[in-house]
Structure formats: structure tokens, C-alpha cells
């Protein structure tokens, strides 16, 4: 057994892959996004690769432009529950919005998934940018960024109260005496806040992990403040080693400043590996994908991402010089800045930028041999840029299959990744994190 | 193959059984309510008995008095998703509240379960009585009964728009042309109503059934009006054949009056079968359960059900004569009337009433031999009181096991129940109901 610091791997699953044109490849199933068998297959590949977890992104709206790529998806908590029964070890991280859910319902769903999966549930906490989602929930437009984060913080506080509303030993099960549970070990939240009023205890006992692993992915100022306070794992999009190191250092020190152990927040940049047996083959594979992009769709999406009017951008011109600063953006702030900086740094035309974003929507795309991919991962891991990686294959299932078949063995040989899962562990244990104590139990000791 | 009218059977699953003291029996697992394996076991027994469906009740609150019996439960949609992967044929009916959910989220979850289960999802639509639930969702107290039903009707209308927002052939999947979907086959609800505003299309394609089987269980005036308009199956508590016949006739004619085919609403009274190899053994089994009731808990619950102050009732006295009429009750109206009428008709003391309710909370408890149980079922079925039954075993899993092992073969021998499931069918097909057409597709034809 190695005792070296271990890499954490998360498989970010998305229908036929993260490349927007992946569904057009001959190998791809264009109905995969709603096929349980497809996701079971992916989950089992990830489990063969001894990944810590798998993850589903989400937003409660249908993106327009159905022509471009598979749209819609099975609801993540539903799909992950089905995957819980098809897997044994891997963690199951669902995205859910604090802006468009009720704490009581959502806390209960995560507790239920945590129980059903034997302690493998994780929650990627999002505040959900965009007016489209808002208008599906009775709002006229998108709530302000700061409001969304204030609501998210209160949502978390209420959820933590709900998850702690049963002490771990509240069930007595004394058949002879006719006493099933101990009402003194139930602690109703009695929460009266700005966004929520939640009176009663959760109607499900405390789950194996106490509550799901808390994951976060926004990298704006509000996002980082939130992560430092609550998150145990963070997904992030970083294009360069220097940027990733700066983000890593910043987030760890913010976490310490928030009074938490900086070792208790794991930073996982996203990487889109495009693997070939030679570097040239990898680049050719990447080119095949790029050749399948329909640029007119890409232009429309890019304009939406940058909050520009339709018709502002031209395919073969660089971005205009007078784009607004991040402060003026109400959507996904950090994604905005990352894209603008990438375009300016490399002087990309809109067409080139679309090609670069088509693979990873701002995440690092890396085409190379398995050895080169492993080198890149190890470099970031050793040089203080990552505790692990969010693996986002351009094409699924083949990209995940290649990663597990060819990159994972190298990482294992280097002592960076577990050889096998070993004894049954919760998701939090896999990430090397302690089980949270119940706030009521600890207060009474 | 028989062509006789077929009985529909639903298994109402509830931790260790419907009798409140069932958890105290030596055979019972007091942690069963949160054990997936327990529910998988039950679902497989029901599937062996070729039941049409299984069903989970629910309310978004923790009932007080944990001492009395197992409290809390896995969230039904989560649990049923896990059961979908462990079964092949049986329908999966989850209770969910129209008062404490958002149409967009809930419609999506049911569509996801319907896809994952291959068309086996059903929704028991409830409006959720009680102030406890209301206070978990930011309300000061229970909304008025009529308001809850008005909201429920609008919730259904919005949900139907969401489920029809993708035409069945919206996915084109033309790889060569680079066209995945057809935006002209997407129909955003653009709903602006009293309770909800929902702008956009659902973010999941139309499911195998179009939408889940719509089930309803309230028998108040508002409840019956709602059922006649929307429900395809109705669970009901009826104590006598005459009452059941009157309810059945009334609901069918209301359904016809609402412009629907009365054959398209299936009526399933609840029955709590307590089975013995002789009638005496069945009664003895019933007595064992009654002996395990802690009457002080029962008195507290009865007072809450009847909306009386604590201390109003005495265990060995009949109910007071001056109870309020159903109109004055804001909770579960039909349950209230049923209990009061039962107590008055049979001149029961509170203790006796608690004993009678302990088994089925107002549903018909029937102790007898398998032949007697089958006779009772057949009588109600043939005499216009039922299209099938909601089977509510007093003790689980043993009660369901006995029913499937001993009553089901009799029903099959009499040609009342399918011998086997036969070809793959959706839940709606099992109940003999047509797949609903998409409102947009039919408008265009």
C-alpha cells in the first residue's frame, strides 16, 4: 500500500460526451441522454477505473436550439438513484439548484439517495444563472447574482439543520416496551429566515454520511466565498497551470480564513482528454470532432454566453474590444471572464474560439497520448494546482473507456491512484474527509 | 386466455405493515422503513403475484410521537426509481403533493421515472392536509381545502402542458445533416395562471406513457370532482359494500359528466387482509396485533384525526355526540366522516375504535381464510363496488407473502386475475387505459 497523497478522480458524465458535436460521430447513440443503460455502462467503466465519484450537471430549463445537440436530460437525482443500484463503490454527485427548490424537499431527496446508496451521495450546489430557468418557476427574470448566493447560503443552513434534525441514535426499536423512537432526539429546525421558514424535522432519519458531500462549481467572488464556507469539493475550469495554482491557493486560504481545515476542500479542475496512441492521432481525433461543429449554432451560443445581441459577432473576426467587465454580467461570471481571456490571450477568431469551447465549454482540452495526459495530470497535482481532476471525455463512452484503459494504469503505476476500492467506504471517506458530527449531539456531550 | 373482466391489484407498501403495532412483532424489522432491500423484497413478492402496481403514500412532514411506530420514510420517487431497476413489470406509483412542489420539477421527475422504468410510473396526486406540512414550506398554516384543490387543478393543467411540450417525434437525430432535434415540435407552456407561471418546455423528452398514470385518493366533494376530471385510478377507503357501491356509481357518473369515458377511471377500495388457515386463526392473528397497540398513543392520534383538543376523548367511552360536521373540517374530510360514521354505526368506544383503525386507518380490515378473502374481493368486484383493490397488508412482508401465496391462486383459478404478465406493457396498459395523445400533435393532424 502506498501512503503517498492520492489523486481524486470524478467522471463528469454527459450523454454522448462533452464535445458538442460528439453525437454526430458514427459510434454515438443520439438517444443516449435518456437511456439508463448508457449511464449504467458509463458508471461501470468509471468504477473499473476506481474513480471517487461520477457527476451530472443540470439546469431546470430546456436550452433552445434543439438542432445543435442532444437537449434535455433525466433528472439527476432520479438517474443517480438508478445508478446507485447498478454500482457498488462510486460516489454519485447530483446537481440541484438552491434557487428553484425547497430545502425540505431537496434535503429529503439527498438523504434518501444517501441511504439507498450506502453513503455515496453528493450534492453539486448551484444557484442557476439565467432568465429561462427563473421563468419556469414563476419569476419574471433572473434574480441578482448576490441574491442567489444569499439564498444559497440560507438554503444550506436550513438543510444542515434538517439533516441534523434526527440524532444518529433517535431510533430505539424497543419492541417489548412498545417504544420505537426517542422524541427527545428529534430537533425541529424552527427556522425563520429571509428566504425560508422551515418548522419541522426532516421525515427521514440521519443518513450514513450525515449529509451528502457538498460540492460547488462557481468561481466568481460570491462563488468562492460560498465554497470556502461550505464546499468539500470544488469543480473548476482553468486553462493554464498558473491560473489553476492561483485559484487553488486562493481557495485554500479562503477556506482557512473561514475557520475550516484547508485539507477539507478538494479542488478538481476539469480536463477534456482527447487520447490517441500518438500525439498526432490524438490531434487528428480532435480535428474530427471540430470538423463536425456547425458554426452557426456555435455563434448563437457564444453570443448568448457573452450576453451579446444576435448578430454582434462575426465568425472570422476576433471579439470586439468593448465587452463589458465581469461585474456587469449577471450570469455565470467566472465562465464569462475565462472565455474572454482565452480569446484575447490567443487572439482567436469567433470560429476558433467556438472550436476551442466545443470540447469543454471553457475547461482545459488536452489532446495527447495516455502518457502525456497522465503527465499533465501529475504536473498539476504535484505543483499545487489540483487535488484531483474532473474528467470530461469529449466522446462517451469511448473517451472514458480509453482513459480508464490507458491513463488509469499509468496513474496507478505512479502510485497516484488506488489499485482497487478496498473496503466499503462512503463518498466522503473516499475523498479523505471526516463524517460531520450532528450539531445537536456534539452540543450535548 | 380468459376474456372476462379482470381485477386490478395494487400493493400499498408501508414499512412493517399497515397495522400500527406491526413493527413490534418478533418477525418485523424496525428499521425496514429505510431499507432498500426490504422494499425490493416486497416489490418482488408483488410482482410474483402479478399485481398491476405498487404504491407509496407520503407527506412532507414528520409526524410527532416517534415512540408509537416507525416514522419517516425514503422519499417515494427516489425509492421507486431504485425499485424500477429491481423489477420488470410492476407499476410504480409515488405520492407527491401539489401544494408543496413546483410543476416544473415534479413533472420532470415523473417523466424521468417513466423513462427509467420503461413506462411504469404513476402519480398519486395529493393536496396534503395539515398545518405541519405547511409550516415546512414557509406558510403559517394550512391553506383552505378549496384553495388546495384549485391549486391542484392548475398544477395538473401545467404539468400536462409540460409533458406535452415535446412531441413524440421531436428528436430527428440526423447525424449527416447535423440536426439533432426539431424546434418546431417543442411547445413551451407559456402558462400564466393564478398559482403558477411556467414559461418554458420541459427539459426531458416525452416519456413512454406520455405522462404517469394519474391516481387520486381523496373522497371529499372537492376530491371527487378532481378525480372525475383527471384521475385514471382512485384509491378509496370504504367500510361497507353499500357505501362502496354508492361511491363507485357516483364517481363513474361524475366522470361521464366531466366528458370522460367512465371505463377510464378505475376504482380501488383499500382492504387490509388478515389471513389465517382457518377463520379462527385469522381472528387470533388480528387479536395479536390489537394486543400490541399502545392505547395512549392511539388516543392522541384519534384526537388529532378528529381535530379535538388533547384530553377530550376517554378510552372506554363512545365519541361525544357534538362532533363538528365534515364541512367544518379543514383536513382530510372524507377520512373524518368515515371514522365518525364507523364509530357511531357500531357504537364503538374510543378503545375499540383505535383497535379497528390500528389496522387500516379507516380502510376495510378483513380477517379470514384465503377463500373468504377471495370471496369478499370477488363480491365487491362483481357487484359494482370495485374495479380492483388496494391491498394493504397488516404485516409486511408476511401479509403480502400470504396474499400472493394463497389468495392470488384462487383469484387466478376464478379467471379474475392474469396468470402471468405476458408481453411488456406500460402501467397504463395494465390498467386497460389508452396512451394519451399529445395535445399538440392531435391539434395538427
Automatic annotation (TrEMBL), chains A, B:
Keywords: Flavoprotein, FMN, Monooxygenase, Oxidoreductase. InterPro entries: Diverse_substr_monoxygenases, Luciferase-like_dom, Luciferase-like_sf, NTA_MOA. Pfam families: Bac_luciferase. It is an enzyme of class 1 (oxidoreductase). This is LLM class flavin-dependent oxidoreductase. It comes from the Bacteria. The keyword Oxidoreductase applies. GO terms for molecular function: oxidoreductase activity. The keyword Oxidoreductase applies. PANTHER family: ALKANESULFONATE MONOOXYGENASE-RELATED, C2H2 FINGER DOMAIN TRANSCRIPTION FACTOR (EUROFUNG)-RELATED.
